[in-house]
Amino acid sequence: xxxxVKMRRARRLAHATLEPFLHRGASGSDGLQAGDWLHxxxxxxxxxxxxxxxxxxxxxxxxxxxxxxxxxxxxxxxGIGPELIGEEICLWSSRGDPAFTAGVVGAAAFLEAMSGxxxxxxxxxxxxxxxxxxxxxxxxxxARSQGRL
Length: 149
Hints:
The protein is an all-alpha fold.
């Protein structure tokens, strides 16, 4: 029962964290199709960020609980079905895909920059860093898939 409480809390936190970035810019994520999101760097970034946020907020979770949080959040954000998301994560991770790895590293840097938001001196720098990291690992790839670059 406690795992269900953790799962719910982790999903809410991940959605709340991603929401402002999903609607940035003139068109935000409007008009994006599930296939637009299916890039190893984007999925590596999002899946890792969801995992790190969940673990930081809720502590250790069982593998299946964490996988449920990941698949639910990524499905809500991207529209990609949970089975395909899980399969792609396993495939790219096991192959050591460089784009997937770049997304994973970017998510760790994103979480580190988020930690600076509470500090009064570093808040503006942290916000700018978050936007740059989002654009580097997600935004520019989505724009490219939509022919906006």
